[in-house]
Amino acid sequence: MAGGAIVNTRGGKDYPGKLTLFVFLTCVVAATGGLIFGYDIGISGGVTSMDSFLEKFFPEVYRKEKLEKSTNQYCKFDSQLLTTFTSSLYLAALIASFFASTVTRTFGRKWSMFGGGLVFLIGAALNGAAKNVLMLILGRILLGIGVGFANQSVPVYLSEMAPARLRGMLNIGFQLMITIGILAANFINFGTAKIKGGWGWRVSLALAAVPAGIITLGALFLPDTPNSLIERGHPEEAKHMLRRIRGTDDVDEEYDDLVAASQESHRVKHPWANIVKRKYRAQLTMTILIPFFQQLTGINVIMFYAPVLFKTIGFGDDASLISAVITGLVNVFATFVSIFTVDKLGRRKLFLQGGSQMIICQIIVGTLIAIKFGTSGEGHVSKAYAASVVLFICVYVAGFAWSWGPLGWLVPSEIFPLEIRSAGQSINVSVNMLFTFVIAQVFLAMLCHMKFGLFYFFAGWVVIMTIFIALFLPETKNVPIEEMILVWKAHWFWGKFIADDDIHVGNVEMGIDRSKINA
Ligand code: BGC
């Protein structure tokens, strides 16, 4: 007989089971879905600054850029055509994530991952072999569709597979892979920019096939999550899978909760109509605001434009690329801090600490730049001065890498009940992609107009989002994913939106102590 769940201090449950090698490996393989997104973030900026690439596909842009002689460091050459080309991927991903929602819900999480990897692979081949702009753009749209499918399915897959008390750690594997993808791309651009024959960009673009191959092949071997198996009418397989991933036969309690969640889910025919219901207001708000805020931290200014930024503060070509590699390394290593602390300290502490660190660094960087370049944008800095700017940028990146980076993907994937989880995750992906697009598109114009104030602007947003988290995000660490409703019900603000009748799953029936909810 099952030993049963233990009610923990937060009013959630601790199911029996341990971290099995099987679940660890499946999560590592699934997380590689993050590589394709990261690789693209890191590769595009480098490729579009290669002369041979511009000459071939955007000769007009190339000519204008060479004529540009402004000494104003804030106002760099800005081609809307070129940034639109780069950002077309994010628009494609935005739209694709809605289709991915249906695939993920109807056919299972693994087929979304497989499909995403495959389409990305075709896009990489088209881009690497591109003979004209049409091939290039078609390729980018396919890459975007791939990213849309992967980002929609991977975080949900990881959150469902993981035992509740290690969910944060396993889910952040996705962000870790994003950062590794970005870093690999930085290194590759550094190497291919040195290729003499003018075909370096082809190598950079074609190598996207490597991460795509990894997730496409990997997805073929992945099992589907018990939650999804039950939802799609395979209860026996689901139970078998649950035993396998938890490493124990004592899974009845968790299984029953999944079945209850699935029954609830089957009452819902239209996830999109349901998600706007009052009882889901908290989750809907989070899945819109968290990705919006994540992009308003300004992180992609660093990820996309680090070499430009470092050139602005007086580094040469090589030094700027090396500095970009340094921030890339910091990004990867700092992610481990969140991997090891997120299930102990919790999400809120990381959000609040990381946010505060980012605010301080942004103010310092803005001020350092203001002192040297003022509002005119004219000026020179010493190597030591420039190095100190890079240092504070690294501390800022570290703050992001253990807060808004990983949590921006983790939290939206773990807060929704099963019936609207796929739809909720699609909203998360599309809002994220939309604002990634917007920031990429307007950053250079903003820098030209707002000058060093741009750093204060982003700092202001991080202040707002940090206060938002402090007031409105309840702690979700260690709470089983199908029990999350209890956390919202217990929250001082969101609790008002959830009627007592809205809570069916796993509490009264499964013996949860309701008195703990309001504790
Ligand atoms: C964000 C990306 C960002 C990356 C940096 C991700 O969580 O979604 O926009 O470039 O982190 O590591």
TrEMBL record:
It is a multi-pass membrane protein. The lineage of its organism: Eukaryota, Viridiplantae, Streptophyta, Embryophyta, Tracheophyta. One of its GO terms (molecular function) is symporter activity. Pfam families: Sugar_tr. This is Sugar transporter. Keywords: Membrane, Sugar transport, Symport, Transmembrane, Transmembrane helix, Transport. It is found in: Membrane. Belongs to the major facilitator superfamily. Sugar transporter (TC 2.A.1.1) family. The chain crosses the membrane at residues 19-39, 81-99, 111-130, 136-158, 170-188, 200-222, 284-308, 320-342, 354-373, 385-405, 426-447, 453-473. One of its GO terms (cellular component) is membrane. PROSITE patterns: MFS, SUGAR_TRANSPORT_1, SUGAR_TRANSPORT_2. It comes from Musa troglodytarum (fe'i banana). The keyword Acetylation does not apply. CDD domains: MFS_STP (cd17361). It comes from the Eukaryota. InterPro entries: MFS_dom (IPR020846), MFS_STP/MST-like_plant (IPR044778), MFS_sugar_transport-like (IPR005828), MFS_trans_sf (IPR036259), STP/PLT_plant (IPR045262), Sugar/inositol_transpt (IPR003663), Sugar_transporter_CS (IPR005829). Residues 26-477 form the Major facilitator superfamily (MFS) profile domain.
